Amino acid sequence: MRLRSVQAADHNSFFGHQADPEAVRMGGYTPRGRKENREHWLSLLADPTVNARTTWVDDLNAGHVSAWTHNEKRQIGYVIAKDFWGQGVGTAALAAFLDEEDHRSLWAFVAHDNVRSLRVLDKCGFERADQPAQDTSDAIHVAMRHDAAATRPAEAGRAQQPQRDPDIQELSRSTA
Ligand SMILES: CC(C)(COP(=O)(O)OP(=O)(O)OC[C@H]1O[C@@H](n2cnc3c(N)ncnc32)[C@H](O)[C@@H]1OP(=O)(O)O)[C@@H](O)C(=O)NCCC(=O)NCCS
Q1: CATH class for domain 2-158?
Q2: Domain boundaries of the chain, sorted by first residue
Q3: Could you read off the pLDDT of 103-120 as tens digits, one per residue?
Q4: Ligand 1: which of 116, 120, 122 to mutate, most ligand atoms within 8 Å of CB?
Q5: pLDDT by residue (tens digit) across 62-76?
Q6: What is the pTM of this model?
Q7: Which helix (DSSP H) or strand (DSSP E) does residue 123 occupy?
Q8: Residue 4 has what pLDDT?
Q9: Atom number in ligand 1 closest to CA 123
């Protein structure tokens, strides 16, 4: 597993990952339509405060990890393609991302019954924040916070050490 820059075609893969019914149920979110998803990614990539990375496994797009600022909180989110679940990819991707993303505190708002995601966050050093759960129209979300310097969980050693690939160009902001 390695993280790389988001490429022009990646939003097509991201659309399928986030639209999977099991991912939707697990994540407790409303999936985006194809056009909405494409516009979403183009707006993220046009925003210099957003840090978005593609999770790349064996030459395949296996999802993404991103950070953005909302309500003065630096938040993270991730979706891994279902074919890769349970192989340590989510943990390795988040651990690698925490090495790259300097901002602390980092926040994650997670459906309270998303045990996989809560486990990934726990392994990567996030802790339950002292905040009331938020009851959205999709799910009850709990707040998780990462304050300390990034620590790499032992489990992430299963995956290949991630590294930036300078040869891969960022998605052109002008790409339609
Ligand atoms: C959540 C998600 C990122 C996890 O990715 P992943 O690659 O499967 O994660 P990993 O394999 O690194 O780790 C999953 C952990 O959950 C554990 N797990 C899986 N099913 C579980 C269950 N039913 N109960 C408890 N733990 C469970 C695994 O055992 C593993 O922990 P371990 O390494 O200690 O054994 C992925 O399932 C996903 O993208 N889901 C849909 C979108 C989503 O929920 N995004 C997060 C929104 S906050």
Answers
A1: alpha beta
A2: 2-158
A3: 999 999 999 999 999 999
A4: 116
A5: 999 999 999 999 999
A6: 0.89
A7: helix 115-123
A8: 97
A9: 34
